[in-house]
Specification:
Elements: H1 3-18, E1 29-43, E2 50-62, E3 70-85, E4 109-121, E5 124-132, E6 135-136, E7 139-140, E8 150-158, E9 164-175, E10 182-183, E11 197-205, E12 210-219, E13 223-237, E14 240-253, E15 278-290, E16 293-302, E17 348-357, E18 366-378, E19 387-399, E20 409-419, E21 427-439
Length: 441
């Protein structure tokens, strides 16, 4: 039994004696969520296509806090995935949608459960357990497939000072979107697990329209990372505004990074020192909103020394070399798109998006968006000419606003990716998603 699991077990025993205290049950929330997804990935270069349908069920229980100067509570989560359909030969392995069995076919179902104990003192909260889903500039728990990615460890969030939010924590393991198990942490290309991801940082709301951010993260034996961010919203009129969002990352090697098992594959691109993290990435996005219309334009620059780095356990394998299904991740850049990330060494990316909210036309809950990204100047690991890539994404979302199906949502997404001599297949991808959450507390 690891330290986090043992701490949760002990805390649950203590909470069982205090649960009668007012607030623990009265402020509790419980819900069951259903996500049905059809996933179709057409590899245009002749590699195996993927066509699968699956159902995901998620149960969440969030207790309130016991009374007293220090309040205690518990959050619990159970996840179940069910493979509904997928023709033979259309389940590539490894897979971040449905786990693979030992014969590389899709499993019929998979599940996992975890819980966090929590404590609150004044305006500070601490969480310890295996159902953590951070959403921070240096780490985002990915929810882009059937089941969400979760992490195991401890986190602290404090809002003791007006306008300031402080975050800190240590994470030790992660559960992938297509996995029933927790594994250690790594980067893309790393085959050795690290069990220590430390982070700390703050969001400072200078004014109601301006927020400044700084975060530091360290994945032991892989990388160190500094992040600086600025978000400003200029209100032009009641129904229009101009938003500026600037982000900068500075990442470098740590410990054993570069050695066998701890190598970073630099997202398939060139690296000044192969296998080592050495990166500076900046991006800026400007959004003009007018009524239901939103026009977005931005640019991103990855320096020439190496690709952008972030947590990604997709290269981890078991004792028999079987992929653990721990892959799939998100990162805090505007180019984290439906198919590609646009974060290779040297890459310059210009991107734009138009979105519309139909509420102004009397159809609340209906939204649509189309985006385009083009990256060039990508450095080649083989010494050839610089490469380029582009992606076009479209989506339409509708959420029922009233009646028996209130909250039921439908999303249709389509993406097209093309690259020149890059080690990722040209792809046409379609996702059809049905979401529904029922809250009974």
């Amino acid at each position: 039994m690891n330290k986090s699991t043992l701490a949760v077990a002990v805390a649950v025993g203590v909470l069982a004696q205090q649960a009668s205290a007012a607030g623990f049950f009265e402020d509790s929330k419980a819900s069951v969520s259903s996500r049905t997804m059809y996933f179709n990935n057409d590899n245009r270069d002749g590699n195996a296509d993927q066509r699968e349908t699956a159902e995901g069920l998620k149960f969440d229980y969030l207790s309130g806090f016991t009374q007293g100067s220090v309040g205690f509570g518990i959050d619990a989560q159970a996840l179940v995935g069910i493979h509904l359909d997928g023709g033979k030969g259309h389940h590539p392995d490894p897979n971040t949608f449905v786990p693979s069995d030992t014969d590389h076919s899709a499993v019929d179902q998979w599940s996992r459960a975890a819980a966090n104990v929590k404590a609150r003192f004044s305006k500070t909260e601490a969480h310890l357990g295996g159902a953590l889903q951070p959403n921070l500039p240096i780490l985002i728990a990915s929810d882009g497939r059937l089941l969400p990615q979760t992490f195991e460890g401890g986190t602290i969030t404090s809002k003791e000072f007006d306008g300031w939010t402080f975050n800190a924590g240590q994470l030790e393991h992660a559960a992938g979107r297509a996995s029933s198990n927790t594994d250690g942490l790594a980067v893309n290309g790393g085959t050795e697990e690290s069990n220590k991801f430390l982070y700390g940082g703050t969001d400072w709301k200078v004014t109601k329209d301006l927020t400044l951010q700084y975060y530091y993260a360290n994945l032991e034996d892989y990388y160190k990372q500094n992040f600086f961010g600025l978000v400003h919203v200029y209100p032009i009129a009641p129904n229009q505004s101009f938003k500026t969002d600037v982000r900068y990352f500075d990442s470098s090697a740590d410990g054993k990074n570069g050695e066998t098992g701890y190598r970073f594959n630099n997202n398939g691109g060139y690296a000044k020192t192969p296998g080592e993290v050495d990166n500076k990435t900046w991006s800026a996005m400007f959004t003009y909103t007018l009524g239901g219309n939103a026009f977005l334009l931005g640019h991103q620059r990855v320096n020439d020394d190496g690709g952008f780095v972030y947590l990604n356990q997709g290269s981890l394998t078991g004792d028999n070399g079987h992929n653990l299904g721990a892959g799939g991740s998100s990162f805090y850049l505007f180019t984290d798109s439906m198919i590609n990330g646009f974060v290779r060494a040297g890459e310059n990316t210009t991107f734009g998006q138009y979105s519309y909210d139909f509420a102004g036309l009397g159809v609340p809950g209906l939204k649509t968006a189309i985006s385009y990204l083009h990256g060039d100047n990508i450095k080649s690991a083989t010494g050839g000419s610089d490469m380029s890539e582009w992606e076009r994404d479209m989506r339409i979302d509708y959420t029922v606003q009233q009646g028996a199906l209130k909250g039921f949502g439908v999303t249709l997404r389509n993406g097209v990716y093309r690259g020149s001599e890059i080690n990722i297949a040209d792809q046409d991808q379609t996702r059809l998603i049905f979401n529904y959450t029922y809250s009974f507390l």
